[in-house]
């Protein structure tokens, strides 16, 4: 994994980084958010694969149900969640702490378009004991900097 904090500092991208006890559930994340006092929209990143084992990351709201049919339409391939074991083997990340960014190889990102209407996004930067907050306006700059192929999940495609 790329050190996102170092990369963002070097590129003058605003971020907040919080260190805390390891968290793996949405409930714990909300407790940490309150304890640490940061603000922003909680997100989750799903590490996905297609039949040819090409990976994708889907960035969406923490509590939103995923419409895999709609995701498949967007990328033109049927997608499924990578097993915890395989994900940890490939990325070094544990389930519940998947980062949307920072992979050594280019992994396409699928972004839930509804996230874009929020001021700040909260996510795990690949470690369960850290939380990162970025400004949504910097999302395109981050994606370009990391040279990530991008897909948008239109709001009307993901109404769960």
Automatic annotation (TrEMBL):
Record keywords, A-Z: Aminoacyl-tRNA synthetase, Ligase, Protein biosynthesis
Protein known as: YbaK/prolyl-tRNA synthetase-associated protein
Record flagged with keyword Aminoacyl-tRNA synthetase: yes
Pfam families linked to this entry: tRNA_edit (PF04073)
GO BP terms: translation
UniProt lineage: Bacteria, Bacillati, Bacillota, Bacilli, Lactobacillales
Domain of life, source organism: Bacteria
Organism of derivation: Enterococcus faecium EnGen0192
Family named by the database record: Belongs to the PRORSD1 family.
Presence of the UniProt keyword Protein biosynthesis in the record: yes
GO MF annotation list: aminoacyl-tRNA deacylase activity; aminoacyl-tRNA ligase activity
